[in-house]
Amino acid sequence: QVQLVESGGGLVQPGKSLRLSCAASGSIGSIYVMNWYRQAPGKQRELVAGITSGGSTNYAHSAKGRFAISRDNAKNTVYLQMNSLKPEDTAVYYCNGIITLATMSVPRNYWGQGTQVTISS
Question: What are the CA-CA distances from residue 6 to residues 36, 55, 102, 121 (Å)?
């Protein structure tokens, strides 16, 4: 079993920064991809950023230039640095990992329970 636990969410003012963390634990074999998704009230869940095991990244158009995803492979942790935050960034942010167990070769999707990010004056 693999668990993903997010931290770092909270309430910040527009234009400020926030750094989210997601730590993976359990019987991990390999982490292929880690992603950050978000879901705002009344909206579909959307991909914000992703990073591969090799360090390749991708971003939603709304996040590009403001957000930066990174990972610490030694700690099985992914980060999302969020700068120049806007009210429309308000959402529950979810960590997602495409991960193999140490005893299996087929990767599976795992999800954290989410962390609330609120951007408001």
Answer: 10, 20, 22, 24
pLDDT, one tens digit per residue, over 64-119 is 999 999 999 999 999 999 999 999 999 999 999 999 999 988 999 999 999 999 99
Cβ neighbours, 10 Å, residue 36: 26
Separation of alpha carbons 22 and 5, rounded Å: 5
Q: Residues 74, 66: contact at Cβ < 8 Å? A: no
Distance between CA 109 and CA 96 in Å, rounded? Answer: 7
Residue 106, φ and ψ in degrees, nearest 5 = -95, 120
Per-residue tokens: 98: 């495409």
How far from 4 is each of 7, 56, 86, 93, 94, CA to CA, in Å? 10, 21, 26, 12, 9
- Cα–Cα separations (whole angstroms), residue 25 to 22, 38, 54, 64: 10, 21, 20, 29
Q: Can you tell me the distance from the alpha carbon of 5 to that of 110, in angstroms, rounded to the nearest whole number?
A: 11
Structure confidence at residue 38 (pLDDT)? 98
